[in-house]
Design a protein that fits this description.
Helices cover 35% and strands 35% of the residues. It is α+β, with helices and mostly antiparallel strands. The model has no long low-confidence stretch (mean pLDDT 96).
Length: 101
């Protein structure tokens, strides 16, 4: 079982390379998440029908693991979020999902 958090991003074509670098499975976000116990993986999905639309799926062992990460790494999370501000035109948290995998 895992706890998956899904985000949607709309990225201008002029920022595509920077965005992909930041949000890919070995980018700065995933590197930060890896510092926490209970992190599984980050997946970056590019829409094949809508240019500039991406989804990220951040997989955690449990909601509790994610909540512990937010508590323990809040300052680092906020600093990275501020550093990468403006890469996407729109950023929407689509939700958190339990999986049976």
């Amino acid at each position: 079982m895992s706890y998956d958090i899904v985000w949607e991003f709309h990225v201008p074509l002029t920022r595509k390379a920077q965005f992909v670098e930041a949000y890919r499975s070995d980018g700065p976000w995933a590197q930060l998440f890896r510092r926490a116990s209970g992190f599984i993986e980050t997946r970056l999905l590019q829409d094949t029908e809508v240019a500039g639309r991406y989804l990220t799926v951040d997989r955690w062992e449990s909601c509790a693991a994610f909540e512990a990460f937010k508590r323990d790494f809040a300052a680092d999370y906020n600093a990275l979020d501020e550093q990468l501000e403006g890469l996407a035109l729109l950023e929407t948290r689509l939700g958190a999902f339990d999986t049976d995998q």
